[in-house]
Write a structure and sequence with these properties.
heterodimer, A: six-stranded mixed sheet, five-stranded antiparallel sheet, globular, B: about 110 residues, mainly beta, four-stranded antiparallel sheet
């Protein structure tokens, strides 16, 4: 079967750095997405990786290793507004998205 | 403001009733999707449509139906609601080029009693 694994919950301190990991086993690979979802709101797109390596976008970076079936989302200079769930999703060989259950990130002052 | 509009935002209905969740987008995206989101589970695809006039079944289609008469509208119908369909429902759309990222509506919270 296909599955995406990511930690259920993480806690970090304002101003610090946090890394959220995602491992996947899917039928084929056509890209990996990270979305942010604040409580009670819709998911919003953060990043997309299709080739190995690091993609940087401001305070957020996303890394992909296709050979290891592994990605991480790195958040720097954490702010209270970064408290949210972070969803990892992989597009499989049929171009369907397989979603992880999400990682709830709690930021403490 | 361009985007996706869902209605209603919240609804409580009795088991056995018929319910249609509406979804309209003004971004001229070809592809549209309906997901349900339940606590502790990832987003699960109910139905999708790659273009107007075509629809397909996702991971959890039973008890739901969709139609795609035009590019903008993609309603989801529960023919006879059951308590297990209590969930938050998200409509989304995407282009079929570029990254194909999804744009989501604000969600419809449905409670079936």
């Amino acid at each position: 079967g296909q599955n995406i694994d990511q930690p259920t919950e993480m806690t970090a301190t304002e101003g610090a750095i946090v890394q959220i990991n995602c491992t996947y086993q899917t039928s084929g690979f056509n890209g990996l997405f990270w979305y942010q979802q604040h409580a009670g709101e819709a998911p919003t797109f953060l990043s997309y990786n299709v080739l190995d390596g690091l993609e940087e976008k401001g305070r957020f970076s996303s890394f992909l290793s296709r050979s290891k079936g592994y990605s991480y989302l790195l958040l720097k200079e954490l702010q209270m507004k970064d408290s949210a769930s972070y969803l990892c999703a992989v597009r499989d060989s049929n171009y369907q998205l397989i979603w992880g259950a999400g990682t709830k990130l709690i930021i403490k002052p | 403001i361009a985007g996706i509009t869902q209605a209603p935002t919240s609804q409580i209905l009795a088991a056995g009733r018929r319910m249609t969740l509406r979804c309209t987008q003004d971004m001229r995206h070809n592809a549209m999707y309906w997901y349900r989101q339940d606590l502790g589970l990832g987003l699960r695809l109910i139905h999708y449509s790659n273009t107007a006039g075509t629809t397909g079944k996702g991971e959890v289609p039973d008890g739901y139906s969709v139609s795609r008469a035009n590019t903008d509208d993609f309603p989801l119908t529960l023919a006879s609601a059951v308590p297990s369909q209590t969930s938050v429902y998200f409509c989304a759309s995407s282009t079929q080029g570029g990254t194909g990222e999804l744009f989501f509506g604000e969600g419809s919270r449905l409670t079936v009693l």
